[in-house]
Amino acid sequence: MTADDLLQVRSAPTPNDPFSIYATSNAVDRLREMGNRSGFQPNHYSLTEKGYYEASRIGRHNGRDLEDEMDALIASGQLDPSTSEVLRDATVTVDIDSKSPEIEKVETALTDAIAKVGASNALMEDKEGSRRHAELKAGKALLSGKRLDVRLFKSTVIPALRWLASKVTDESASMAIQAAITAILTWILSHGG
Q: Which of 69, 76, 121, 150 could form a disulfide with 92 if both were Cys (CB 3.0 to 4.6 A apart)?
């Protein structure tokens, strides 16, 4: 997988320089120092950007979301903190061309969903509904920048849309939400997210 540029080997940090024991003048001191050293840590592997895209593609094919799986693994406590920090910091950023047809389609679909949800008194009076509406607005604001963190955008907008889709009763609002989900996921998939 490293040969295919899907994984990158990261040498594990060693607490002591392994060759420093040879600076000690006698064999007894060298053996004593070797006995006091902790074992060598195995190398760490991390996904490259290409590996992230491929893992996301395979996960989608199997009905799973890579980011949800990583979050669940981190939450389970099966990773040490240094590993989970690497996972949390891994982001995919893309340049945003506000005049591109893809972005215009995403913005239009998101604007329509925001308007339809905002017109629903039942959703706006619900505390959770108004929070999800605000998350959609925040996601739309993210599209106005020059660069976009795809993971942040997706984790802000898609859960809000899915929650709203499960609560909305108006057919036109439901269609607008589904159209927004489709447009956003199509655009994210085209950028490897």
A: 150
The answer to whether residues 177 and 165 touch, using CB atoms and an 8 Å cutoff, is: yes
Mean pLDDT of the chain: 75
Residue 151 has pLDDT above 60, yes or no: yes
Q: Give the pTM.
A: 0.55
Q: Are 151 and 67 in contact (CB under 8 A)?
A: yes
- Taking the CA atoms of residue 172, residue 174, residue 177 and residue 182 in that order, the dihedral angle to the nearest 10 degrees is -100
Q: Is 19:33 a contact under the CB 8 Å cutoff?
A: no
